[in-house]
Amino acid sequence: QPQSTGPSAGGVAPPSTPPSQQPGTQAPRAEQAERRFTPVTDQRLRNPEPRNWLMYRRTYDGQGYSPLDQINTNNVQDLVPAWSFSTGVNEGHQAPPIVNDGIMYITTPQAQVIALDAKTGDLLWRYKRQLPEDLTQLHPTNRGVALYGDRLFVATVDCFLVALDAKTGKEIWAEQVEDYQKGHYMTLAPLVAGGKVMVGGSGGEYGVRGYVAGYDPDSGKQAWRTFMIPGPGEPGHETWQKGWETGGGSIWITGHYDPELNLAYWGTGNAAPWMGDARPGDNLYTTSVVALNPNDGKIRGHHQYHHNDSWDWDEVSAPLLIDVQRDGRTIKALVHPGRNGYLWTLERGQEGIRFVSGVPYVNQDVFTGIDPKTGRPSYNEARKPRLDAKVDFCPSLWGGKDWPPAAYSPRTRLLFVPANENLCGALTGIRMDYVPGQLFLTAGIEDIALSVRPGATHIGELQAWDIANNRKVWSHKFEKSQLWGPVMATGGDLVFMGGTNDRYFRAFDAKDGRVLWQVRTNSGVTGVPSSYEVDGTQYIAVQSGWGVDAQRMQDALANADPANYKRDVPQGGVVWVYALRQRTQPQPQRR
Ligand SMILES: O=C(O)c1cc(C(=O)O)c2c(n1)C(=O)C(=O)c1cc(C(=O)O)[nH]c1-2
Ligand SMILES: [Ca+2]
């Protein structure tokens, strides 16, 4: 049984953390946090103050937009570091700095939680979890905390949901969600809505049966669990001729929420194992969006982006809730740039989810058409991986985009998509039996192939879409790099994003895509950026810390075309916080 260590427990630290950063020395700072912490109510989650970033994408609609505008297109050149903080951990730092009235919370791989003074960078407290020694981590990352009341919640890689006192970092409860020894793990930030703390689990490459589970924030008791693969007798079960028990549909990115409909929208992962002919049928609800009522976990709607997935195209990114003007009316839309390379627009309602449109945003050679009524794609069967064959297809198995979230600015009405163009992949299907806790791919991981399309002039591409007209209005291309950068839009008409193998973090003009500012960081930036204000100063915050599949794609690219793409991206996590030059901390007097 894994045990956890609170800030004062002084327990055994995970191996990659230097001894100088062990917990137990921060008590006076924790008292500061105690005095200042403002409780996070449902009301505040629904309508957060502009100065705060209280959840994964700031607002329930998942737009990743901060209304703050002190930093804008006229002065962004004056952005300089206000402070930075080294986490002492390697691998993928992806969590947004979540900020509640001057207190910042970040997580690192291994589910470490760090609380910092958002103005000064002072360490308030640090929580580390003692992980079991036999734990292997296929995706070593953690995507952040959820706040509620005076608690925070973190989902751990050994599959526990942990509640901490947000003021002190003391553990209040830790509930086992699933068994890590059977290939279950968690990487997402929990979602708090309708009085429940919701999490989903990873494990699509291990043949898990995906689920979303709702927990009582006070007691930690599970209120409900809804499987993303319907069991016998449940609607959708007929889409599985076999293999539903190990069918995938994992959940590893935070859902979004519509308070008016009281529905949470979750994206679901790839079907398992990878080769579709090993599990004939559409395989609901894999590679779908699923609408759940947070009170009881009941499914109230779904839309499957592509059926019988065979490309590892997880559609886990939850769709953005956007009011889209189209054909003379306002559509309460769900907008999703899919891993399958199509930009989807759906309409949400109490009755369910209705297809509106789907258009490719990168080169895609698999779909031969989209049914205009249902949105169901038809396939070029020669591009569909299968058992006992090698099949190539575009985009690669990492898709038109992987997990890094897109953002939407209600001011410019543009959707910003961090895409990877001009990449193709190949998979070789092999027969494989399911063994609990072992990879269940029906493909050799060493046989995953990545290639750059002949004549390609770039890979990474930040795209801006006018979603009213399904039109790409600008794009910024990265010649020598893939793009794994979560995007943030701001009220200053700026778009912030890192994600390239040259370690830059950049600001773009939201209207035309010009790079207005860039700064070189310690590592590659795959962290979700956030923005907040303390004492009248706006800050931009992001973690730099390359790893996981951004690194795997880097290795594959360097292998495919070393002359163009070989680049060492150093690892190691650092929180970076930027503010306008005249507003950073006071400098010592010159003598
Ligand atoms: O099927 C799954 O359960 C699952 C989980 C995760 C994860 O938890 O991060 C990834 C993937 N799949 C995946 O397919 C993928 O490309 C991926 C990239 C990353 C990353 O952090 O860079 N995680 C994951
Ligand atoms: Ca997957």
Describe this structure in words.
The radius of gyration is 22 Å and the shape is globular. The chain has a single domain, classed as Methanol Dehydrogenase, Chain A (8 Propeller), CATH 2.140.10.10. The longest helix is centred in the C-terminal third of the chain and has 13 residues, at 548-560. The N and C termini lie far apart (58 Å). The protein has four helices and 41 strands. The chain is mainly beta. The strands form eleven sheets. Strands 1-8-7-6-5 form a five-stranded antiparallel sheet. The chain has a five-stranded mixed sheet with strand order 2-35-36-37-38, with no helix packed on it. The protein has a four-stranded antiparallel sheet with strand order 3-41-40-39, with no helix packed on it. Residues 1-50 are annotated as: Disordered. Residues 53-348, 478-540 form the Pyrrolo-quinoline quinone repeat domain. Residues 31-49 have a biased composition (Basic and acidic residues).
Structure, briefly:
This is Methanol/ethanol family PQQ-dependent dehydrogenase. With 591 residues, this protein is mostly beta strands.
